Amino acid sequence: MPLAESGPPMADRNTFRLMLLILGVVFAFLYIPISVLVGLSFNEGGLPTAWTGFSTKWYGALLENDDILKAAGNTLIVAVFSTLLSTILGTLLAVGVEIRRRNGKWLETVIFAPMIIPDIVLAIALLSMFSLMGVKMGLHTIIVSHVVFNLAFVCAVVRARLKSFDWSIVEASADLGGSTLNTLRRVVIPVLMPAIIAGALLAFTLSVDEFIIAFFTAGAGRSSITLPMQIFAMIRFGVTPEINALATLVMSVSVVALALSQRLNKGGLPGQ
Amino acid sequence: MSDAFLSIKDVNKTFGSVHAVDGVSLDIHENEFFALLGASGSGKTTLLRMLAGFEDLSGGDVVLEGASIAALPPNRRPVNLMFQSYALFPHMTVAQNIAYGLEMDRLPRAEITSRVAEILEVIQLGHLAKRKPDQLSGGQKQRVALARALVKRPKVLLLDEPLGALDKKLRSEMQLELKRLQHEFGITFIVVTHDQEEALVMADRIAIMRDGGLLQVGTPQDIYEAPETRFAADFIGVMNFLPVTAGDQGFVARDGSVILADRVNGTGGAIAAVRPERLVLGDRGQNTLRGTVTNTAYHGLDLLLHITTRLSDTPVIARMTAEMADHLRPEMGQEITLSWSAKDTHIFPA
Ligand SMILES: Nc1ncnc2c1ncn2[C@@H]1O[C@H](COP(=O)(O)OP(=O)(O)OP(=O)(O)O)[C@@H](O)[C@H]1O
Ligand SMILES: [Mg+2]
User: Fold this and answer.
1) Overall CATH class of domain B6-225
2) b/e map B209-231, b = 16+ CB within 10 Å
3) Among chain A residues, CA nearest to B53
4) Which residues of B touch A177 (CB under 8 A)?
5) Which helix (DSSP H) or strand (DSSP E) does residue A193 occupy?
6) Nearest to A176 among B73, B90, B100 (CB)
7) Domain extent at residue A228
8) Closest Cβ–Cβ partner in B76, B83, B105 for A172
9) What is the CATH number that goes with domain B239-348?
10) Model confidence over A128-180: pLDDT tens digits?
């Protein structure tokens, strides 16, 4: 196998086998719980103790649960709007920062801070700020909060692409009579489009399964509950087969979006 | 001259402490093919970018047809730049690239289509109209970049080393092609190059730049036959330099012989210069030198002889036509006498 050939010279056959074994264990550790979850969501009997046959009835049950449907709707609204806003703002920010690069490194650090600051800190900070401003909380505050961290991710993905951007085409556009707006619309954005879409998909994924920040900024009552919050509420009465099915669905959405994003943006995620 | 088409008036550009362009004044005529020639870092690109509007002027003015354009942004100048890197839009096809500038001018769709088709015809790339830039060869990209700038019919087309990325054969083809297009479209061309041969072939007039300033402006013949400085003489074509001392009897070469010269530049002449093709075999002119053939270089049309003499440290180069060479059959180590006339002799200060 090519893997063996490309290993470091000192890795003889046995060390290589050991490495494969460790790799296997790590993957098992990572993916067995998820496989169990997915498997159980198709378990006819619904009990984690015994496999009684394949069924999709728990997925059907989801569709009859109004709370879940409502939460799914909310999640979708939050994800779509926060993705839209953060994609537009994050792209403009990335382009602006790249143009004014001489402002130095600190600007970059300030922009990317929300990616690194722990969610719980961000959540408390946002909650404090909304309370201080006397904003009535609901879906809109979740959207704004999600924009805060999604912006940083979109900006990072677009900036990665801008590193290899040929700025002479911007001058060419101006030279040919293009205004700043036309240059942005017809040249800069189309060339960056793969990175912008990748950033948007990443933002969508992050928003769909984000729990802590949404939980803190949703306000009281059930009206603006999102899917992760709904799962959290249900799980207090034990893991039900419905939850398994729901979690499987949420995961599928994330995996598909992430895969698309990776595919579009061959540079990979920021920090990789 | 106030009625010049494009008038560059005492233009300056400083980047921090670097004087990239230093007091350049230049009048360019309508429909002229003008070449800016200079070594790397002499400020050619900077001057061109100032004309296109990409660099602010640190001083001076640029006047086109009587009106200053110095304060206009690039997209409002009736001037187009063909970039050294071509700067084609990677996400657009060849046809879309060419149409872009016309769309920015909000021309009617039908006119855009016909003008794009017309220029594609001119540059003979009609069959590649639907290709993206990354599917083109270097020479094809160069043509598209040219077409994209030409199709707007600017008053002045600026070209930054337009042929720099092409191989030698394609280069000489494109030199003629550029000249033909310039003539056909009747547009003023300002071409930047550091290839003196290219400038001689293409340009109506040449300006030699050095350290941000203009050294000499003139027709190719002027500059080749009557260089005003040692730098210009050395930069254009091949020149033999013979150190001399200015004495009472005239200019005395190292072997004590007197060199007669008609073209004396400046005072305190310290070096005499003569072109290889002005040297003739035998003792037939006003100035004479003797030496040994130490090398011969065959160039197809002609033969270059390297002759070691007492007159200078480097060998003197003489050019012979193939016909002459056949007749004389110069050999290595052969003693040879060459002569030339005073009218072909230049004198420069040290
Ligand atoms: N943006 C800039 N900042 C600082 N210095 C610059 C800048 N652009 C050019 N220079 C300097 O100005 C001088 C002239 O540069 P320019 O690019 O005009 O030379 P050039 O004649 O076009 O050279 P080449 O033949 O290598 O393209 C150089 O010393 C260069 O380092
Ligand atoms: Mg240059």
Assistant:
1) alpha beta
2) bbebbbbbbbebeebbeebbbbb
3) A175
4) 75-76, 101, 104-105, 152
5) helix A189-208
6) B100
7) 65-264
8) B83
9) 2.40.50.140
10) 999 999 989 889 999 999 999 899 999 999 998 888 888 999 999 999 999 99
